Amino acid sequence: MTEALVASIPLAPAQAAAQAAQSLAHAEMSDHPLHQLVMTQLDDDQAQEIVSIPLEGKSSIADHMVIASGRSTRQVASMAQKLGEAIKKAGFGHVRIEGLPAADWVLIDAGDVVVHLFRPEVRSFYNLERMWSFEGGEATQGRA
After folding, report:
1. Neighbouring C-beta atoms of residue 8, cutoff 10 Å
2. Rounded CA gap, 144 and 6, in Å?
3. Which residues contact 109 (CB under 8 A, 6 or more apart)?
4. Which of 63, 79, 87 minimizes the C-alpha distance to 119?
5. Most distant pair of Cα atoms in the chain: their distance
6. Cα–Cα distance between 27 and 21 in angstroms, integer?
7. What is the pTM of this model?
8. How many domains are there within the chain?
9. 133 and 86 part of one domain
10. pLDDT tens digits for 71-94?
């Protein structure tokens, strides 16, 4: 079959959704290298329940909000410090880190990407995912 004929054949709904999600993820990765760096670093540091919420066009504070958990205050603090260093080393500039001494909830402001790192109990109490979920918008689960 020719490519034009194959392209004109309608896809099953599940295949179409998967293809759209894959192209959206592909576009997101190539358009936002800082977001990709954050997601990769958190996965490498064994963060739990990584969620990325796209804010582009919905809020002026950032293009992405990433929320993740650590198993302890020590892990949360370590992830925050390593992420700040990785962002700076990659040439994205200085990041602002808040909440590091207590490390129950650490906010990392990297400009286009805002990262919230929590201990699990604190994360469930504040439930930022629900607060920042927009109707029609999808939060993307990370690998961890």
Report:
1. 9
2. 36
3. 62, 95, 96, 97, 98
4. 79
5. 63
6. 10
7. 0.73
8. 2
9. yes
10. 999 999 999 999 999 999 999 999
- The alpha carbon of 58 is separated from its chain's Cα centroid by a whole number of angstroms, namely 16
The phi and psi torsions of 6 (rounded to 5 degrees) equal: -65, -40
Half-sphere exposure for 114 (CA within 13 Å, toward CB): 15
Token pair, residue 15, equals: 């295949």
Q: Do the Cβ atoms of 38 and 87 come closer than 8 Å?
A: yes
My answer on whether 22 and 48 are in the same domain is: no
Amino acid at 33: P
Residues 21 and 89 in one domain: no
The structure tokens listed for 89 are 């080393």
Residues 79 and 115 in one domain: yes
Q: Which amino acid is at 60?
A: S
**55 and 11 within one domain:** no
Domain match, 89 and 127 both: yes
pLDDT at 115: 97
- Both 96 and 64 in a single domain? yes
27-71 per-position pLDDT tens digit: 344 378 999 999 999 999 999 999 999 988 888 999 999 999 999
> Do residues 69 and 109 share a domain?
yes
User: Do 79 and 68 touch, CB atoms closer than 8 A?
Assistant: yes
Q: Which domain holds residue 9?
A: 1-31
